[in-house]
Amino acid sequence: MVMRRLLRYLKPHRKPLVIAFLLLLLATGADVAGPLLVKVFIDDYLTPKVFPLQPLVLLAGAYILLLIAGVVMEYFQEFAFHRIALRVIQQLRVDVFGKVQHLGLSFFDRMPGGSLVSRMTNDTEAVKELFVNVLSTFVQNIVMILGIFVALFLLDAELAAYCLVLLPVIYGLMVAYRRLSQSAYREVRQRLSDLNAKLSESIQGMGVIQVFRQQERLKREFGHTNCQHYRANMRTTRLNGLLLRPAVDLFYLLTVMGVLAFFGIGMKASAVQIGVLYAFINLLDRLFEPVNQMMQQLSFLQQSLVSASRVFELLDEEQRAPVGEGEQKPTIQQGRIVFDQVYFSYDGENEVLKNISFTVEPGQTVALVGHTGSGKTSIINLLLRFYRPDRGEITIDGVPLQRYADRALRQEMGLVLQDPFLFVGTVEENIRLHHPDLTSAQVRQAARFVQADRFIESLPRGYQEPVGERGTTFSSGQRQLLSFARTMARDPKILVLDEATANVDTETEEKIRESLARMRKGRTTIAIAHRLSTIQDADCILVLHRGEIVERGTHQELLAQEGLYHKMYQLQQRMAKNTGA
Amino acid sequence: MRIFRDLWWFFKKEKKSYIWGVAMLLVVALLDIFPAYVVRLVVDAIEGGWLTPAFLGKWLFLLAGAGLTMYILRYYWRVLLFGAAFRLGKQLRGDLYAHFSRMSSQFFNRRRTGDLMAHATNDVQAVQVTAGDGVLTLVDSLVLGGLVVLTMAVFINWKLTLISLLPMPFMAWAISRYGSMMHQRFLKAQAAFSTLNDKVQENISGVRVVKAFGQEEAEKASFQQLTEDVVEKNIAVARVDALFGPTITLIVGFSFFLAVSFGAFFVLDGAMTIGQLTQFTIYLGQLIWPMLAFGFLTNIIQRGRASYDRIQSLLDVSPEIVDQKGAVNRLPAGEIRFELDRFSHRKGEPPVLQAVQFSVPQGATLGVVGKTGSGKTTLFRLLLRETEPPAGTVFIGGIPVEGYTLSALRGGIGYVPQDHFLFSASIRENIAFGKPKATMAEVEKAARLAQIHEDILRLPDGYETRVGERGVTLSGGQKQRISIARALLLDPEILILDDSLSAVDAKTEEQILEALRVERKGKTTLIAAHRLSAIEHADEILVLEYGTVQERGTHWKLLQQAGWYAEMYRRQQLESLIEKGGGHPW
Question: In this complex, do A247 and B71 lie within 8 Å of one another by their Cβ atoms?
């Protein structure tokens, strides 16, 4: 099944494939023709000891010509197969990457990032091995075996017919080896990945290990895994020793014995036979090398198929991201947001949002507060259409959220994330984010607007300063300012803020706060706030607790209610009271 | 060849495996001469017309015996030689691991995890290949090759041997050359693949941003571009890779041609029989592998040597922080005292800490605040000797920290680092990390103190839930609390919380601090924090700025000093106070 699906990827390459295959046939033909020419030489000229010059030169010329032509074709054939395989894998990779781009966030919640990355890279790499090595080895070697048999039949049909017995024997050996080696190789791979996982974790957590004085214990544990890995390796070595080369070599010897016996017992001891005998032994020698090669690839075959099935699993993933439905193409004009009795759960069991209803008028700011896990982020996730609500409706400007096209939605909704994510590239690229219509001037204006211009201009290369992996060369405050600029460059109607709290020094925080205030002006804003102090001017504050809105109102109203908000506020304020006393 | 000398200690250690293994290889090489000889006898007998069944039977019987013997020997030398190589790999991996666990944090800071991993995987692999395949190719190319050539020359015809072997050295040279070309191109292909990998990694971890900004198509386009690069680099590899087979075919073809055509003259002369010519060509076929092996050998040796050198230089780094002579092996307790004039990580660098003098009486709580980079973490690391303090500047119970053994020192201190690192194991194992034999009751108690017990019970498998790479994902606050529980389980004399409450909400923070106050009465606690509420109750608070103590005192005293602390405090409070109706808060 998996195999058939993989082979379907070859379709666009039909033409080069046919050419490569033809080259393969010709090259193989040239290859097996060599011993046949030698046979002619031995039987027709050497044994009778007649050496007419012209035919011999012709014979020698034919041999050399065939050799060179065969070699050239062999090279191009081999290269062609390789190239096709690489193109196939490229297509597979592009397909799987493209697919993943359109999967819903619910999928990413389920799938740990590391294993997702591994499927898209390592597993496709394993499939590459399948195409580059396994499949081409099989095709080439099977053609070679067939070619050798054709040659054998040309030499002596009777003996060649006997030799056909070899085919089921070889096949049986391969099947037996495949069956036995499968679990052995799986074990080796498993142990190796355990070993690497342990090692990399220990390197990263060495500080903790040392502080907790667990070096000896972890060394023992590592030693144990190391031993298991060694034992698994030994098992495959024994298996390979029993069934691979040594066994194939033994078979070759037995075959040679059979051929000798055939010629000897048959007593057809005319001189004509000697060339045939020579060619037989020579060809049979070539027959067994392909067998050796195919058997060595068998262990990879299984592994590649497993990897391929994992890749296909990803390609078949159904959890697509919600996209726009319906005919009309509404756009966001005002930015009036309404949540109407919205219910939502990530896993279909535990509801994280219950009966959420609220309205944000254009230009207003609504703040969401509550403990970790109270549902603040889930509300934002629904608004951004990362997930679909289970029940209830979300509308923007009176139009149901699901009716907006993706572009229309992303254009007018600006998200500022808690953990600002920067891409590898330059500062300018990180603000622009492939937006085709943004001019450099607009990028700079956005940076100025959020007060990121000063630190950017102080960088050695300014807006062209390279950003490394995850932007680690910038402080978290600078990263936040950059992500502000990125959002403001698009001038969205709606602003979605996931407030960052930890680890920003007070001065940067001041700047961030000022910029935020300016950004909010004239825009509908939904903000998650951890510090109540930052959202006291909100038009409405929603207090969430276990997925429900338990209180709502302005800061003053909520304080007057003396409920949960009041308590949270008091807690953040305790020190102030103490001092005031 | 130097690599074999470098590995001599191992060959000596595995004397038995190598002596027997190589001996078996030699016997196999000898026996391998035999089949071609039998072919020659039979061919000559057929040609001479005097082949009898008895003659044929005798030789075939011997051939079968030789074949079976070779089968057995071939099996055993593999087990012996490759087994020894695997043991070398195992040992090197173990050595590296043990070495890593002796290294201090500076060692790891200066190197990337990926590089260290590469040494322990790829480099070990390369050395392992040298000890296995390297020895095999060496023996095969020299002994098997030599034996076959000798047989051809001595027992058949030395002139013909010389003529037919003319193209062979070219094969060894070509294979070796292709090998190193392949290796270089392969490295480039690897690098391209690794860039691709980084791209995917970035795309997945930034998925929310990608979606929120509608970057899907742009991402696809840039990915497509990277795959193009990967394909190109791999095609460069393929160009060389596809050379191996044809080159071998070509050279061997020429050799055969020379053998048969010149051999024919010798047969005519009567210098050889046709049987001998057949035998000769079979030997020629048997020379392919030794020649290939010789080509491979140079590459194996080259890579093995480079890898072994890298491993060795890593193992040669001596641990920077070790037990001093005469260090006491007693858990540290008592007053903590810093008398630090100046500390910098390396000579000539500006100081990280300067004029830091303070003491914390046993049972007291110290709070440390200051901006990021003001030296808070360094202070704690000096106490733990994760970073080595200048001799005689940091004391616990009157003894300098370097006067304790590392094991004793760290045994007395519970540390909750800033970056909460959890291991891929169950939550229970993570909490009991420092004391694997802890009872469930102890684990739960620690979890309760850290206010994480309830959260854990809500997870699918409770305390047995796996965390880390292959387990459930926890929030930052949950991870922090688990690492707090991990330290609390040891009930240490000294507890260090290095900004370990940053991702925990205010209410939970308050609960944890309250639980600590009750539970750790009489024990010393050091807390660094951004949020001042976390250190408000400390007996003394140090305000660090640029590595020096700017202000010190209790919360009240510091507020009165109207310095950085008070300013910071005011800022954290100001807005809420204004809302409350304005007026000066104090």
Answer: yes
